[in-house]
Amino acid sequence: MSDAATAAARFTEYYGRAPAGVWSAPGRVNLIGEHTDYNDGFVFPFAIAERTWVALGDRADRVIRVATSFAPDAVEIHLDDLAPDAVSDWAAYPLGVAWALGEFGGDLSHARGVDLFITSDVPVGAGLSSSAALESAVALALDEHWGLGLDRPTLAKVGQLAENRVVGAPTGILDQSASLLSTLDSAVFLDCRSLDAEVIPLHFAAEGLTLLVIDTKVTHAHATGGYAARRASCEAGAAALGVSSLRDLDVDDLDRAQAVLDDETFRRVRHILTENRRVLDTVRTLHERGPGAIGPLLDASHASMRDDFEITVPEIDLAVATAQANGAVGARMTGGGFGGSAIALLADDLVPAVTRAVRDAFAEADYREPVIFTEQPSDGARRDR
Ligand code: GAF
Q: For 14, phi and psi rounded to 5 degrees?
């Protein structure tokens, strides 16, 4: 378990002086709205309790150096040399963000260099957005330290650009927005076209509900493979249907889509159109009937990801089906897919039974032991000290 004091202590140990400040940003769970972000659609994520911390200290020159508890060697670069292809591996995230700040109007020409030390307790490869936590913490720290004055929606775009251009993953704006815009006990209802964001209270605890995360330990990476293929299918579907993005279509257009598209592209498109609808229905249902009533929408979202978008894996499907069979209000995969985590919303007193049932089912199927924990919707990025 890390915290701001640990990040400061590690900075001091490494650089031999105290940091000027410590910032942090959380990972996220997406409650519903998967792969809709890069289709200009709707998402509804919240920040989780696990965070990434960045301790920062000034330098006299114009070098930026990054060290971390999760890699042996520090990486450094002159601010004038920042470029998309100048950094690689884990350093692409923090140094990619430093480059991307300039692309969004941050004036780095007079900025002094910085030393950074990064610690994190966001699990990597679990579909809980460790990358956005890192990008968002660094973006906020550098923006505030250098006085660049970029607002949080712009910092989310900075993190996304770093991920797209420097890391090389063609991801949308969901994860960075969740990390930067969330507040305690709430989720962010984001329109990824207008970037209008509304923070909506979830009231899980007040309603006697617990959100369980089941990390299947099947790891994924979005810089390779299926994620880009799904994105390409959506773009091909939109082009064939004569729209600039799938946001311009609604479930009423499904008959026409089926007539025009091949079966696979149609199913990809159907996931996006129905998922946008489910996000809107979830927000409405929360307002009208509370969180105990959103379960069928979570279940339907999972079925759509499994059957139409085909981004789940057998471990995830087993976790979801077991939670559902043991009384969860609703359950679904969260995140980009091809591994990662499932979430289950359930009555507080069902937590031990559902946890046991999922563990037993995994053992029975000879799957790796999952890591199962409860999660509280938490605060977004902030300065800690
Ligand atoms: C990953 C991406 F980074 C997000 O942009 C989003 O597309 C998500 O997968 C799927 O909803 O987390």
A: -75, -45
Read off the DSSP letter of residue 284: H
Could you give the domains of the chain?
A: 4-200 (3.30.230.10), 203-375 (3.30.70.890)
Q: At 375, which helix (H) or strand (E)? A: strand 371-375
Q: What is the pLDDT of residues 354-371, one digit of tens each?
A: 999 999 999 999 999 999
Contact criterion met (CB below 8 Å) for 279 and 259: no
Report the nearest atom of ligand 1 relative to the CA of 127.
12
CA of 178 to the centre of ligand 1 (A): 11
Position 224 pLDDT exceeds 70 = no
Residues in the chain: 385
Which residues does a 6 A CB cutoff place in the pocket of ligand 1? 30, 34-35, 37-38, 129, 171-172, 174-175, 222, 335-336
State whether residue 368 is helix, strand or coil: coil
List phi, psi (to 5°) of 195: 65, 20
Tell me: the pLDDT tens digits for 257-300?
999 999 999 999 999 999 999 999 999 999 999 999 999 999 99
Alpha carbons 85 and 373: distance in angstroms, whole number = 38
Neighbours of 255 (CB within 10 A): 9
Q: For residue 297, how far is its CA from the centre of ligand 1 (angstroms)?
A: 19
pTM of the model: 0.97
Secondary-structure percent of the chain, ordered helix, strand, coil, rounded to 5: 45, 25, 30
pLDDT attached to residue 220: 75
- Which member of 115, 175, 299, 308 is catalytic? 175
Question: pLDDT value at position 223?
Answer: 62
Active site residue 248: no
Using alpha carbons only, what angle is made at residue 324 by residues 323 and 328, rounded to the nearest 5 degrees? 75
